[in-house]
Design a protein that fits this description.
By secondary structure, the protein is α/β, with parallel strands linked by helices. The protein has a single domain (9-153, 188-234), classed as Rossmann fold. Helices cover 36% and strands 16% of the residues. The protein has 7 helices and 8 strands. It has a 6-stranded parallel beta sheet, sandwiched between helices. A two-stranded antiparallel ribbon has the order 6-7. Helix 4 links the parallel strand 4 and strand 5 (147-154). Helix 1 (23-33) packs across helix 7 and helix 2 packs across helix 3 (86-95). The protein starts with 8 loop residues before the first strand and ends with a helix.
């Protein structure tokens, strides 16, 4: 992305994930960029309250601490924030200047790029926390100060007549985008992962996580592809 090598990268994982799952992603980004890469220490139990805004605030506090650490180690440098799955949606909250449960994060002061990987930005379900994000931080509301890039995997089409995996995809795609027959990464349909106004990159054959498909957003070759694509889109 033609940034100074000291500019940090912070990875915020997805729901029910653990930092160990991002080991290869972290190593690959560090190798590609020569920049310090931090992973927010969020574990499976930290996500148990994600149905409510209180649960989101718990994860946000962990993100704040890692950003503070990254800024202390790289004074004056802006951060590239990489959010996988729900981590990308929470990243949007962190960037904004409107209060979230009484706390103003205004992370756009410290972050100049948000890359989301298979993040369910849009959902047809009536999920209060998700609805709050879209009501208060629609689309790329912190642009142009922050560059937004959304990566979506197109590994599996949902189907009621196919394999068990295709049937599962149908059951999760339909409430998210309204179409169970859509293409997606096995958990999040492509159309839900592409934030309006952001730069888009759709990757054929890429699954949501290692548990859904061997090749996923954290596979080293895939990391190289989306990082370079997002860099090109930044110009």
């Amino acid at each position: 992305m033609n940034y100074p090598v000291t500019r940090p990268i912070v990875i915020l994982g997805g729901m029910l994930s653990s930092p160990q799952q991002y080991r290869d992603m972290r190593a690959t980004l560090a190798e590609l960029t020569g920049r310090p890469v931090h992973v927010v220490p969020v574990f499976g139990h930290d996500w148990l309250g994600m149905v409510s805004q209180v649960g989101w605030a718990h994860v946000l506090r962990k993100l704040v601490r890692v950003v503070e650490q990254a800024r202390a180690e790289s004074p004056g440098e802006k951060i590239t924030l990489v959010g996988h799955s729900a981590g990308g949606v929470i990243g949007r909250v962190y960037l904004g200047a409107q209060p979230f449960l009484g706390q103003v994060y205004d992370g756009a002061r410290y972050v100049d790029s948000l890359i989301t990987l298979g993040s369910p930005h849009y959902t047809h379900q009536r999920m209060p926390a998700w609805r709050w994000v879209e009501d208060h931080y629609p689309g790329v509301c912190c642009a142009p100060a922050v560059r937004y890039a959304c990566v979506a995997g197109a590994a599996l089409q949902g189907s009621l007549r196919g394999s068990a995996q295709e049937g599962m995809a149908y059951s999760v795609y339909r409430p998210l985008c309204g179409d169970g027959l859509a293409w997606g990464d096995g958990l999040v349909p492509v159309r839900s992962a592409l934030l309006e106004g952001a730069q888009h990159f759709v990757m054929d054959g890429v699954g949501h996580s290692g548990s859904f498909r061997r090749v996923w957003y954290g596979t080293p070759d895939v990391v190289r592809q989306w990082w370079r694509a997002c860099g090109e889109m930044d110009g």
